[in-house]
Amino acid sequence: SEFGQRVAKRLADEQIAWLATVDGSGTPQPNPVWFIWDGETVLIYSQPNAPKLRNIAVHPVVSLNFQANDEGEDVIILTGEAAIDPTAPPSNLHPEYRQKYARGTVQIGMTPESLAAEFSVAIRVTPTKVRGF
């Protein structure tokens, strides 16, 4: 569908998405994240002490949201389950991730190796539903 094509394009092209987890009090906790889409799951790398990891451990249902356009349209929200993925390669050994964020890595004053060391925990989100307009 046309909407499905827009979702696929945003998953491939967007640099930042908002990952919303839920904390222990039930409060949504959105955070901007870098990500890579492999056609079935979204891979995100996190700092090891980030609250989102504690939130996912207790409540793995998350949403991944893309910024709307200037007119408040092109809204895309994925919901699904998140889990720590100990089998994912470090980001500096993930060719697609490294290529996608090469410029961003330099802009934040890091190298691929320092980025992988700081953001060392892989989170894999498996979408179960998509909605938007």
Compact description:
The chain is of the alpha+beta class.
What does this structure look like?
The chain is an alpha+beta fold and 133 residues long. Helix content is 29%, strand content 35%. The protein is built from 5 helices and 7 strands; from the N terminus they run αββββαββαααβ. The protein has a 7-stranded antiparallel β-sheet with strand order 2-1-5-6-7-4-3. A hairpin with a 4-residue loop joins strand 3 (35-37) and strand 4 (42-46). The model has no long low-confidence stretch (mean pLDDT 96).
Key words describing this protein structure:
alpha+beta; seven-stranded antiparallel sheet; 133 residues; single chain; 7 strands
Layout of strands and helices, then pairs:
Layout (H helix, E strand, L loop, with lengths): L1 H12 L3 E6 L5 E6 L1 E3 L4 E5 L4 H8 L2 E6 L9 E9 L10 H6 L1 H6 L4 H7 L2 E12 L1
Antiparallel strand pairs: 1-2, 1-5, 3-4, 4-7, 5-6, 6-7
Sketch the topology as an H/E string, one letter per element.
HEEEEHEEHHHE
Helix content: 25-40%
Overall pLDDT score: 96
Q: Cα distance, first to last residue?
A: 12 Å
**How large, in whole angstroms, is the Cα Rg?**
15 Å
Large-scale geometry: globular
* Main sheet properties: 7 strands, antiparallel
Going across the biggest sheet, name each strand in turn: 2-1-5-6-7-4-3
| SS summary, helix count | 5
Secondary structure category: alpha+beta
| Low-confidence sequence ranges | none
Total DSSP E strands: 7
What percentage of the residues does DSSP assign to strands (E)? 35-45%
